[in-house]
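Record pair follows.
FIRST:
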Amino acid sequence: MSRLMYISNLGKQIQYIEKAVATYPELIQGEVDICNMKKQSLWDADFESRLRAADVVLVTNMGVGLDSPFLERLERWLYAYHPKYWIDVVEPKKTDILYRNIDENQRRFLESYRRTSGVMNYVRLINGAFSTKPISEWEEPDHIPWQAIMGRDGNIYETYDEFMEAEGHRDWPSIAVYFYRDEWIMGDIEYQQALFEEIYKHQYNPIIFYGQYGSNPRVGIPNMKLSMNHLFGKDVFPFDVLINTCKFSYQSLGAQTLEELKLQDVPIIQGYTIYMDEKTWAADPQGVTPLDVNLSISQPELDGVIQGGVVACQTFDERGHYVYLPVKERIAAIVERAIKWSKLRHIPVSERKVAIILHNYPPKNSNIGSAAGLDTPESVRRLLQVMQDEGYTVDTVPETSAELMDIVTSHMTNDRSMLTDELLASAEGRLSSADYKTYFETLPADTQKSMIESWGAAPGDVFVYDDEVIIPGFSNGNLWITVQPPRGFGENVSAIYHDPCLPPPHQYIAFYHWVRHVFEADAVIHVGTHGSLEWLPGKGAGLSASCYPEIGISSLPNIYPYWTTIIGEGIQAKRRSSACLVGHLSPPMTTAGLYDEFEELEALLDEHSHFEQEHPESVSDIENVIREKAMVCHLIDEEQGAAMEMDDLITVVHES
């Protein structure tokens, strides 16, 4: 009996082959030996004997070309010793010898069976590898739609209108979810159905559709853009938000171009289907594996996605076949995030409520708006003007940035040294201790325990007065202009700011809760590089409900103007606070120099050096002037200035 050896590192293909052999053994015209390169890429005597025993060898690889020593050796061995083989890889080198005794038409049919998918098509793939029949007698693959919209029960519709007629509500808005076609064919649709139900529960149409990323003209596969044209109509996008659960980048795999993504003009929220089970993910402080970061997070970032988080975790059945199971709490979170972005499209501009948060580290008034590479006060002033011009309800736009900062510091801030009874009495932002405790008790148990151990029982004592948590900031029309609360207090503020374990104070959590649920912000703008939210304790990526950045931002749309040169910190903001970054260039820079009395003092010091050389008889006169000017500049005090030797005084001034 003929023998096929099928070598691959693509899990779904392995599962199709195994299922074809197990389901239709009477139809298979030979034996099949399966080699999963993920589990057994070791070249040994046993592996080589299996190669020699095979009449046909088919190889597929998830990667580019012969991208491992194993594949390179396999290609050389097959070329030297084997009579019939095909190594099907993307972007091979011109020098690679990838097939023998399988002609172009046969390869096209085999590829068509494999890419069309389905168990019966893999039966045809196996038999086609053995076949000696003329190509005219080979069966066409079973038709399975290249794109479709999935209904509640896993049934499919081949157009949007068919779905809406059967299961949609024309008066509801819609949220779309894109997933892999092979998952539907294999029946691996639990997380997709969970997304369907969660979206539907909020009275949104769940447009759960599948397709392929890139096109393949050889076998008639359309790319994602063509599939969307087929489902919805050319350049028609009947949804407010797209949740993408597929890996890689749209652009890099040819799914959509940058211009097509811009034309689509909807937020894309990235949902992760990860290579670990839910229990492992929940316990892992990093959150997801490096491979997950690469495929599900960093590559989609090239398309400008908003990071949404984990939607499903991989688990294996008794046969070693994997499926993705929904993480229900995270599915609820990502759908809520999508709904918040959707609502921004429909809320009239004049009714939109936005919180504008200025960074404030260390927590002193002198450090408000301390974003790197950005004139925060002037940028915010101009932002207020543009928002007012575009119809946002903004009562006042200061004439100057100095006026803006005067207004900010005349209200509640984080600077406890400037705190007065008058400021406390006039504070607009307040959350009763009882309301905070009620909210605090909804947080995960481990979060509550950690915060109580670090900061005492809720609501703690940071900015708590008369049994109320005080929220810094002030209202300006439908805007709340505020400063980010302090990360913590202590002798070493810098160490607390960057502590990966210490939770924030109760007031920090109360602040974001107040912004979301009392002020009821529709969006938040964190102004400039960078704040503290995205650096709070929790997983590195793929956050859970216990991670403090997730607790803070929750589902709130987070717009974040960010300095384009600070890439690493920007990535943190995207991955750990679901920020939509708006990049700005570096400001033009020049030497700041000195001003007023300091500039005069510098000129006097230069003259002193000149007088010592050219007019020593007049040195004492200029030294008296230097002494007086140094005291005016507060570089030395009067008592020091009267007694200090001139050389020592000049040294102190230069060091200051």
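SECOND:
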Amino acid sequence: MAIRDRIAALLGVSTFRQPTLESVVSPDDETVARIREQNGGQLVLTPRSQTRWYLRDLEAAEHAADTGDLSQAARLMRSARKDGVYAGVLSTRTGGLVRLPKRFRGEEEIVTPLKRGNDETRGIFDEMFPATELALLAADGVELGIGVGEMVPVVGREFPVFVRLDPEFLWYRWNENQWYYRSIAGMLPIIPGDGRWVLHMPGGRVAPWQHGLWRAIGKAYIRKEHAQHHSDNWQGKLANSARVAVSPQGASEEQKQSWFGQVMAWGVNTVFGMTPGYDVKLLESNGRGYESFKETILDQNNEFVIAVAGQTVTTDGGAGFQNSDIHKSIRADLIKETADGLAHTINTQGLPQWIIDRFGEGALSPGAIVEWDVTPPKDRTAEASALQGTAQAIRQLAESLSVHGLRLDAKQLSIDFGVPVIEDADDEQAPAMLFDTSLQQALELAGMHRLQPTEDTVRDMLSRGGIELEEAPSGDVAALSLDLAPTDVSAVVKVVEARSSQGLPPFGDERDQLTLTEYLSQVEESNRAQGEIAVAEAEAEAGADAEIEVNEAEPAESEVA
């Protein structure tokens, strides 16, 4: 299979093959290359500009386009771009589009140089497809429904440069289903996707010129041009007041001519000295025909805006510009239509040949594609908020279901919410994705019933989660953070540890190895024993004192007797 057939099969390029009819006379590649070199790399014919257009010219252009000749339609659109309103609105849709952020998808090895070049500044894509050339190609597609360009080799570079060609020289032959480009070398057949030609057809594969805006734009441009000319003519004739020289009835012919000559020579700061009977008057037009020209010009400006932008709010800033999403969505739809069409043309006719030349034919799949991000910033913020809400919902559902021994199908839920996901290459890692949540919930559920997992269960769960186990070195076991009551702490903390935490030296005896509970128990027991001894000693001392008092009292009694 030829390279071009391979590209067509992989990317769905519409096949326009060079005809084999003997009546078609086209120069060979060597002749074209020689003529191109002789003309400084240029093959395009000199464009012909038309400065005056009439509605009959638009009708003639329509009939010519239906035969495959787009020269008149292209010249009309080139003239229409002289209008400031139309040029501004068109540049918003095309020039502003190609300068929006680009997103590349595909093989990382291919995507990286497209985004960043060898000098780490501009990517190869920006060098290969200049923004100005792409904007002109997109404008041709909007206006005529078709545009054409050429990938021109550059000496010293490993990639060509895209050059937009004037669509005035496009020619389509119905009997051959073939597009040609008229050049100084002759009629060149256009073969899209062959590495040289790029044929941009957002207007459709069949008669794309019938779906362009050129007829609506052309009619508005011609009417506006005529209205402006008529307005200028009215201003030249009627905007300036006419001067009337009045002479008295009895004045001679010589006096009349003299007075008329003075009024006719009326200039800046002219002063007349008049005798009774002579007078100067200004005759002004009271007609309002100029208003019709003004209204016609405004109507045609609206035609430009509505045809290109789809509405007028985003250009004049009227009511609803900030608050009504429908106006913004219409504008965004048109920009996305242009962006998608341009990206499709580049992805199918521009990038494939570069991928083949640099990475080989096998790199076409998956290859790489480019697309423009046309999402308004306000919508991007809303999407981010929606994704955040989706993530929270998935997490909460996973936690709730895990309590009942169920697992959430996160992949299917992500697809339902439009969240792109990538599956792990190793399916065995899938259980690990829900491991943290499910284990935490399981431990909490077990703790509520005063249960704990066995060592075998923990090892089995960690093994299924893709975690290999080994014996931890002594002293390296990570401490678990447990919420303990003060009584529980005193039962596990030793006396030496408690004294050290308070900056006190150890006792230096067996008391240091006792827990606080044991030590306090011993202290309490010792205090109780000492208290009993003290009571006994006090009682013994009290008995001895009473005996002494009795012995001292007996002689006194005998003496009395």
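COMMENT: The two ends are 155 Å apart (CA to CA).
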